[in-house]
Design a protein that fits this description.
The structure is a homodimer of 456-residue chains.
Chain A lengths: L1 H9 L1 H12 L11 H17 L4 E5 L6 E6 L8 E7 L19 E3 L2 E3 L3 H19 L8 E7 L9 H7 L8 E4 L11 E6 L1 E10 L5 E2 H4 L6 H11 L21 H9 L4 H8 L12 H7 L4 E8 L8 E2 L2 E10 L5 H15 L5 E10 L2 E2 L5 H14 L4 E5 L4 H10 L3 E3 L15 E3 H20 L1
Parallel strand pairs in A: 3-6, 3-7, 7-17, 8-16
Antiparallel strand pairs in A: 1-2, 2-6, 4-5, 5-18, 8-15, 9-13, 9-14, 10-12, 11-13
Helix pairs in contact in A: 1-4, 2-4, 4-14, 5-13, 12-14
């Protein structure tokens, strides 16, 4: 390990310059105009694997953007195997005028690398290649076998990696899946995320009269689809903020006293949270703290609504139709498919006889909970401690990373969410950044993880 | 009269082509992009007055769209004077994809003229110019003095005609105000309307967090502006369909036993009404028949709603803001100004502390009730009988013609609502139409009205 640490210390500038090269490629996956950049980023990464000593690296075409698969199996069949997942694609950059610096011309300011993709996820996934390189350029050997699967569609609508995982369980077979695509609770507080929420997304259409009506001629006699929709939305929660869909909470795993107590110890500042959002009061399910609400409780949120006249001025219409999009965040052990079925049934039952209601499910993803009692998590705790000199905190995350559940389900190996991002990294926003210390510390953490996991 | 009738018989095609020209001008008053079309329609109408023999016709500029004033005073100072009111502006056309034919390319199908504005109100107001023309091109004389005041803002939020009436009582002095902007109870049943509902129109904005939020990261803790808006809308009516705004019903004039009994005699077919709208059940205030609901009871209807993601597919956002437009129909003796004040106050009180709510009033109009015992109404009854060979029925109307109340109040002359529209004309909706027979019969009725009113 000493030689590895020394190598990393001596190659900081080189590792920064290589990341900068990677960040300069505008690999925006959701915009067709960047298709060539996506391919360029993928090819650049394959070359970097080879340069780093991982010769067996290649592009895998999909119906969308290519996957990258790389492996180094020199630790031998009796050694453990780590599968690293990450993504080389990035979010769009608009509104471009809000960037202080061009998004694809990385610079360092105030100890942070500013560039689109710096934290999400190029900078983070790259740590695991640079740590492997440090072993290969010193010992010519890594203590574990390494596999990498890196996708280019994480920020796009449609993704092909889940299909690839399902079809290639043997190729991806491993003892743990290591992912760095999450953030710490706050700067200086290395964090391991052990649970993610799932998602069930819906669109509902309420049709009243068969045409738009004059609100003078018909108003008072005909039910109004906007008002029916508003009523239906209101019916979905009770006055205590609980979702009223029968059996919705049946499978919800209540959080343990230990979790609750751990959350309470985290340095969460409610007043700052409200101030940042500029709201006088928060809302949500009665009986839970804010962190408990966003990490451990299922939700139902309207994401969009529309119907009738929405232009300038006034139009006295009773519209024929009104629509809404809404989604539920799901928590362990809810099942997306089951919840989708419950919601579809309930909405149909809610529909009053004055209207026709159509509801469709647009997407679903299961929640994830990783039991922290395993060797991979223990290795991550040690690695963080050795690299940053700090004790790890355990946290959950309100969002979803659908691929995590797929890895768990197909490979039956524990997933470790050992991220290096910080809450103010502005991922998905202008001025995305990645702390320089977290980049170098991330490489070191990764090197320690390989070593710790091999010995445990 | 015989020559006038013969002239009208011989000029049907000409009168149709002229109306078509008028209908081709997309004079949508509520959209700034149609400002030039409004002016074009106004100028076209002034030219048509002159061509029809009413030389004294001109545009009157206002702070909004111009008024048209025209007069023919050749009947002499001892003859009676009729003031005709109408409007040359039209409603917007969206949703445009639901029109079977382009809205500003009039065509005749199944005995109906299809075009935006055909019934509301270009086709109807035009009858009174073409009837005057028939007198002037035959006798060179009309039995009454005629004044016309035609506005271009009836379908817009803000209107300037009321101010003009207030400031010009001498110019507009008359023995009756004749208005054709209403519809018959059913085809073949000439109807005179003796009461109109008023209007109070609002737009509300609900602002939650200061930016759009990721529904995974924040969902469950932050109140959702769409859901708050839906809740506020739902709170505005109780389970019996009554509006819950305090003092809202204070001034409502209950209908008389005679009116109730007259309504019951009208050939109203509830099953057909529902079938025409394609709804299984109607709705509204408990304790009133459908006609009572739409003619004599105040309402609260959402006219539009929007907020969040409304595009294709899914976006997991909690929007910062959501909006709705809604309006109340008012009945005698409610006062628009008073109701606006009640609504603004109530909405502000409803706003929960999780959001900021802004509400603005976009327009208001008082309801109207005309006592049918007067010479002008008697002349209209005769005119209808002579033109269509049918007895008149008395009805009320759910819509609003704000100017009617102003005429009554300033000119102290009886208003006659002698409309030619039919219930399935789709005014304010796609595929607006005006029955060809009612257009020609309307011109004839107007000619008879001038004659009857001069003799009575």
């Amino acid at each position: 390990m000493e030689k590895v640490i020394e190598y990393l210390e001596n190659n900081k500038e080189q590792n920064l310059q290589e990341l900068f090269e990677f960040l300069r490629i505008p690999s925006i996956s959701s915009q067709q105009s960047h298709k060539a950049d996506i391919n360029k980023a993928a090819e650049w990464l394959v070359e970097n694997f080879k340069k780093s000593g991982i010769e067996n690296a290649k592009l895998i075409p999909t119906d969308g953007h290519p996957l990258i698969y790389a492996e180094w199996l020199g630790a031998g069949t009796s050694a453990k195997t780590v599968l690293v997942y990450g993504h080389y694609d990035v979010q769009p950059v608009d509104p471009i005028n809000l960037w202080d610096n061009p998004p694809f011309e990385p610079i360092i300011k105030n100890g942070k690398i500013f560039a689109r993709g710096s934290a999400d996820d190029k900078g983070q996934v790259f740590t695991h290649i640079k740590s492997a390189e440090a072993y290969l350029k010193t010992d010519a050997k890594i203590p574990v076998n390494l596999k990498f699967i890196i996708e280019g569609e994480e920020e796009a609508g449609e993704t092909h990696i889940e299909e690839f995982i399902e079809q290639n369980p043997d190729l991806l077979k491993c003892d743990t899946v290591l992912i760095s695509d999450t953030e710490w609770f706050q700067a200086g507080l290395p964090s391991i995320c052990y649970a993610l929420r799932g998602l069930a997304y819906f669109e509902v259409e309420v049709e009243g009269p068969n045409r738009d009506l004059h609100s003078g001629t018909f108003g008072g006699a005909v039910d109004n689809p906007i008002q029916v929709l508003a009523w239906m939305i209101t019916q979905l929660k009770d006055k205590y903020g609980r979702i009223t869909i029968p059996h919705f909470y049946d499978d919800v795993l209540e959080l343990t006293e230990e979790e609750r107590s751990n959350f309470e110890k985290l340095p969460f500042d409610l007043e700052n949270y409200k101030k940042d959002l500029d709201v006088r009061e928060l809302d949500g399910e009665m009986g839970f703290s804010t962190l408990e609400k966003v990490w451990t409780r299922p939700t139902l949120d309207c994401n969009g609504i529309w119907g009738g006249y929405t232009g300038e001025g006034s139009k006295t219409v009773i519209p024929s139709k009104a629509w809404a999009k809404f989604s539920c965040r799901l928590v362990p052990n809810q099942n997306a498919e089951k919840i989708i079925k419950l919601v579809l049934e309930h909405i149909k039952k809610l529909a009053p006889p004055t209207v026709k209601v159509k509801i469709t499910s647009l997407s679903g993803a299961n929640p994830v909970r990783i039991d922290p009692d395993n060797d991979a998590i223990r290795s991550a705790i040690s690695a963080f401690k050795k690299a940053f000199g700090k004790d790890v905190v355990f946290m959950r995350e309100g969002g979803s990373i659908p691929v995590v559940e797929k890895f768990s389900q197909v490979l039956h190996s524990p997933v470790v969410l050992m991220g290096f991002g910080l809450p103010n990294d502005n991922i998905h926003s202008p001025n995305e950044s990645f702390a320089v210390d977290n980049y170098f510390g991330g490489i070191l953490s990764s090197a320690h993880f390989y070593n710790e996991f091999s010995k445990i």
